Amino acid sequence: MKLSSALTVTLAALVILLAGAAAAEKSTILINITSGPEDLHKATMALQLGGHAMDDGRDLAVFLNVRSPIFATKDCPDQLSFGKNPPVKEMLAALVKRGAKVHVCPHCMEALGISAGDLIDGAQTTNREKLFGLLGPNTHIFGY
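^ thats the sequence. predicted structure below, dont judge the formating
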């Protein structure tokens, strides 16, 4: 009986330790943005969420595709902002400065007439290996 109780206590302690370790490990947040200048509300919300994730100590990756690659260009217009929020390009640059990884779809860039030389520092043309390399068991994806 004593052995059974000791084993139960040991297993319970192990479960608590493992749960604590899992809780302490922060996840990676991947934000997929397809919205472009036609829906600055969505783009702004996505970047604000990314900032909150980084505030919480999480790694952040942003995937810009469909109509959103313009936000990662050097000549992204200043007037692309939603309400009283900063311009989307400033929000993205602030996240990059904090360590966010910005991946831009090459097919979408081509469709929009954007070249790799047009991208801001910290943004990269992505590919399958780079993008899927961000995914893991502790990655959470948000789409806007």
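The chain has a mean pLDDT of 89.
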